[in-house]
Design goal:
It is built from six helices and nine strands. By secondary structure, the protein is α/β, with parallel strands linked by helices. Helix 1 packs parallel to helix 3. The strands form two sheets. Strands 1-2-3-5-7-9 form a six-stranded mixed beta sheet, with helices on one face.
Length: 178
Amino acid sequence: MDYQTVNVQIEQAICYLQLYRPKANNTINDQMIEECHHVLDCYEKSINVVVIEGLPDVFCFGADFQELHDTMASGQIRERNPERLYDLWLRLATGPFITISHVRGRVNAGGIGFVAASDIVLAESNAQFSLSELLFGGFPCSSTSLSNSSNRCCKSQLFDDHDKDLYGSAGRCMGGIS
């Protein structure tokens, strides 16, 4: 299949799944969700590891609000169904494989969902995590399981490489993953 929002590379029993929407700040849209599901449908039985990656400066910046705005502005009415995204995160968290998030750059909102669904998180020194839902009066849809980081998340403050070591929320990645 010719994917538009993800890049996929299979090496032995490892699936490298790169979220790839550089013009949209690597935000999540329906097509990305469906393409991720398709990748898992195709390879789930033949892989042992899924490595989720983003771009060098942004792992995933959450929902594509620009696409939502453009759709509404054009007069199109589309029912929003977050269940497909939640199902994707559940598949990543409970699938018959190990899920690793290789985080570089910014991670916000729904991007944290991919991180939370991972068995292992490797974060490079430029990784920054944030939950912006609270700025809009919403509640985060995913949470860190660590009480030390909850205060920061509740204030919707960034935490970077040094903070995440303090809070224990991600492992430091020395160099890149090859």
